[in-house]
Amino acid sequence: TMGASGDGGPAREARLSSPAAVVVGAGGEVVIADFGNHRVRAIDPETGIIETIAGTGEATGEGALPFPTDVVLLGDGSFLVASWSPGQIFQYFANGTRRLVAGSGVSACDDDVVADPSGATLRLPRGLELRRDGVLMISEQGCHRIRRLSDAGLSTYAG
To answer: Count of CB atoms within 10 A of residue 99's CB?
Structure first.
């Protein structure tokens, strides 16, 4: 890991490590899934300053966000993040807290339909896309399939 040096300074001088995704928020902020630095970082559009908004920079331990691969910004100011390994989806809130949305932390391909997504296995979730109806589509790279997360639970959509 190159380290997450640069927080609080100009984004151009920050050290990113294998950025996996970038998304632009409604306010113009640029949000980056900084894969190798185990963080999600945001760049203020007015100042150009970069800050960590999720993850500790470590792959393990309290609050760790190992290998984030994608980010979905939600209308309420929170955001979803796919953690590639051990295979989990988290929702982060403006107050700094997070909740587990899907993935037990067991990397396997043995689930098809699971009513409680937090108990489901996910193997290398790579991409996230939120449909207009609120259903979250998940590209599950390790199992070569697309998963569908809705109020009914987590199910295989394709593959």
So the answer is: 11
Radius of gyration of the chain (CA): 15
Q: What is the pLDDT of residues 134-158, one digit of tens each?
A: 999 999 999 999 999 999 999 999 9
Phi-psi region of 48 (alpha: psi -120 to 50; beta: other; left: phi over 0): left
The answer to whether residues 35 and 67 touch, using CB atoms and an 8 Å cutoff, is yes
d(CA 3, CA 45): 23
64-to-56, 67, 68 alpha-carbon distances in Å: 5, 9, 10
Q: What is the distance between the alpha carbons of residues 140 and 31, in angstroms, rounded to a whole number?
A: 22
What digits encode the pLDDT tens for the residues 100-125? Answer: 999 999 988 977 788 999 999 999 99
Instruction: Collapse the DSSP code of 128 into the 3-class scheme (helix H, G, I; strand E, B; otherwise coil) and give the result.
Output: strand
What is the full DSSP assignment across 42-102?
A: EE-TTT-BEEEEE--SSSSSTT---SEEEEEE-TTS-EEEEETTTTEEEEE-TTS-EEEEE
Look up the pTM and report it: 0.94
| Euclidean distance between CA atoms 121 and 108, whole angstroms | 6
Tokens read off for 53: 């908004």
